[in-house]
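Case study 2.
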Amino acid sequence: MATLLMLSGGADSAAALVKLLTESSEPVFCHHILISDRESRTRCRAENIACDKVVKYCREHYRGFTYTKSLWNFQLPYFGWNLTLCAFVGARVLRSFPEAGINRFAVGVINEPHTLGGWKERVEEASATFHAGLITARLPCRPRIIWPVGQMTKADVLHFLPPDLRGLVSYCRDPLEESDRTFTPCGKCVSCRTRQDVLASSAAPA
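Prediction:
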């Protein structure tokens, strides 16, 4: 038995990874999608760097796991929901390791009211996409979707992560490039504003 986690480079999926590595000894597979779209020229590169740092930290402080990546380059006007893309790619990754016995697909997001709305529809679409991608796989059992940090708030996540690891994650939707491999949050996007609100209201660690 094993678990596949889609790793974004953000705090929520980093917390999900820590929980998977510490709450059982089962094999863990992580996959990161470098998402290049019209929303931001820099976000995918900042998240890619953050993912590498998170993976390195967790391997050194917890235990080993498999880590893979893929690139999604979509420059048309409507990209859609990242959660749906993760479900589609997740099914492909699961099928790429037929001998691994992956029976759980972990989604590293929290179930809080979402700023962009449509949460129920997002979950339904992602579930349908993931299971549709496995129809012809002939797996011995139907993998189930789990939410390791689903009941946590953003403040819970920030408190849960070790300070060193918390400092490695990326959260801005359009980070500013200071130099090669160095990015700073814009402070204006929905993700930056949400983080600022959480810190202001809960005294969560920065």
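The chain has one domain: 2-170.
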